[in-house]
Amino acid sequence: MRLAVALLIALLGTPATASDIEVLHWWTAGGEARAADVLRQRWQALGHHWVDAAIVGGGGNSAMLVLRSRALNHNPPQAAHLKGVELHEWAKRGFLRNLDDVARRGQWQLRLYPFVSSTLNHQGHFVAVPVGLHRVNWLWINQSLFQRLELNPPRNWEEMIQVARRFKQAGITPLAMGDDPWQLAILFEAIALGEGGSDFFRRAFVNLEPEVLSGTQMQQVLRRFHSLRSFLPANHIGLKWNQASQMLVNGQAAMQLMGDWVKGELTEPGNQAIRCLPAPGTAGKFSYNLDSLALFQQQDAEHDQAQQQFAELLMSADFQQQFNRVKGSIPPLADADLSQFDPCGQASAKALQHATQHGDLVPSMAEGMAIPSNVQQAIFDLLASYFSDPQGDAVATARQLARAVSAVSAEQ
Ligand code: GAL
Hints:
Strand content: 5-15%
Oligomer: single chain
Shape: globular
Bound molecules: beta-D-galactopyranose
Number of domains: 2
């Protein structure tokens, strides 16, 4: 129902005046909304109008549905939160404004990490502006609950299971998580990275090698993933990621496995009770989610001019500082000053550096950085049905994974 209303509003659209920027995004949870507000205020301070097309729903599924229907109705917004491989899918269809002019003037090539540039580059042209770099492989723990039970944070998945059992025995929900396919995929890929390592991760989720997708290592990862279902909250069906974070903050749950947008949900920035740790087995590894805004091609010069200014604002060091500190990410700028960031932000930057040097920087499959959206969807569907089935068969699921991925890839 909510989606139907959002769709209707979105399709009717709002008439835009010359310097309007209508921005479609899904930054609607507490910290996300505050970050979007930083952008809105900065844009308005430059004398422009902001038209908010916020579509509720973590992970962006509903937002992407709205965007698709608006584009089909020749009514796309001027800007949208679009990222990773999907950027290329939109660029291929000719929707996105080429940003080479702004990039040249702003020396993007020099300022951005090389992997950031290549994520945003479609056939040699910049097609989106990067706004934040999230590390996905984080484990958030409620420190007081760990202290109360005299437990150490888990460093690998074996320890994770032991710790989870102890919390469960004590009547505390071990792992706060909902059943959204993308939330499940974040857990699954963290296990894959932690137990299989970066090469396994890349062979499975970037190269999509059938023998790796169906192999014994993948079966083990699937088994581990399945074994965690007994540690979720009783109300995990329909639980949103930010509600899960609230459980952690309130002391109802001990841990959450989620990207660092969680920081925006902690009651106070730098909340002492909640600690960030690398997901088990992934110290020094970094699975990235690059948030970016793409600009949709405009027919008139005035809107085009406004888009240029918008892109310049997004890339300004000042905006990136303020925005990322609220959003929980770090700036994707190689020369960013991180001295004002909280310890998790600084740890993220350190992990990024380490991972880059050691071949441990991987694109998050769950966050759309690694593979085409239809292949990602096929993996999500399989993982969700395997996880929800109490009898889930790891060997059969691994085989189906390889088969589904080749079938969908062949459609490209
Ligand atoms: C991600 C997005 C992040 C974060 C998260 C939860 O897909 O890139 O910025 O907000 O969803 O909604």
